[in-house]
Amino acid sequence: MPSFSTLTIDADAASPRVARLILNRPERLNAINDAMPREIHAAVEWAQDNDAIHVIIVEGAGKGFCGGYDLVGSAESTIDHPCQQEGFPWDPLVDYAAMKRNTEHFMSLWRCPKPTIAKIHGHAVAGGSDIALCCDLIVMADNARIGYMPTRVWGCPTTAMWTFKLGPSRAKQLMFTGDVIDGRTAAEWGLANLSVPFNELESVTMKLAERIAGVPRSHLAMHKIVVNQVMQNMGLEQTQTLATIFDGISRHNPEGLWFRRYAQQHGFKAAIEWRDSGRPIPEADEAREQISRLNQAE
């Protein structure tokens, strides 16, 4: 079996046609670090090249699926990073290249000719929801949560899958509010294929995976290509390009810079609390003035 630092993958012992890809940073709620996107891609390629595997289940170790990008360090740090640059002028192409690379790694789940199922307990939020939505199918615990809170400030989902999964009205509701929804709501809205009590999540997911695994690989691949082609014709790649550019802008426009400066001064949790409290996010001239004051205080 391949060896990774952020995840594991292996054939299920009882159902060898099913691969289990487990995000494995439970001490950080399986948060995405620099290595995880490329390791997801490598793990998918391993399963893709293994003729015995027909379907891949993606899940998280510990308390949840994935809590998003591991942002505390990058939010509170004053060190340049491709996706959060302190220096001016901001270089959008450096930012775009880094985030587009991650998006392409996540999309390996979507492009793989073998069906992929996200099995979600706990939280699949922010970048973690990107991973989940790149899977073909989603099975959630009733009390699990999924959403993209950084749409309120400091983020735009680069995979742009929300509209393709939910339709424009529901996608706008979640993007405008940054709200998270539970498994029951996700199933009612058509985002999740199934929502079940937590103690049934494993058995129901395996039942679905085993049912799919009984179909020849070539048939599964053809059906997946047909459905994916519809999404391509609807402009998925172009939409992802725009979303990835906007993600960089959202972290470097006045509100985004204010968010990071506030995190540097008061801590990431305090910045999150402000973002999610409903208090107005300082904009334009007001944001620039606050950034200037924070810089002078350093």
Beta strand %: 5-15%
- What general form does the structure show? elongated
Count, helices: 14
Supply Rg.
19 Å
Mean of residue pLDDT values = 92
| End-to-end distance | 49 Å
Which runs of at least 5 residues are low in confidence (pLDDT < 50)? none
Number of strands: 9
Order of helices and strands: EEHEHHHEEHEEHHEHEHHHHHH
Spatially, the strands of the biggest sheet line up as: 1-2-3-4-6-9
Percentage of residues in helical conformation: 40-55%
Tell me about this structure.
- With 298 residues, the protein is an alpha/beta fold.
- Helices cover 51% and strands 13% of the residues.
- It has helices at residues 36-49, 72-76, 92-106, 108-111, 127-134, 161-166, 168-177, 183-189, 201-213, 217-233, 236-252, 254-266, 268-277, 284-297, and strands at residues 7-11, 18-23, 55-60, 116-120, 123-125, 137-141, 145-147, 180-182, 194-196.
- α12 crosses α13 (268-277) and α12 runs parallel beside α14 (284-297).
Explain briefly what this protein structure is.
With 298 residues, the protein is of the alpha/beta class.
Features:
298 residues, alpha/beta, 6-stranded mixed sheet, 3-stranded mixed sheet, 14 helices, elongated
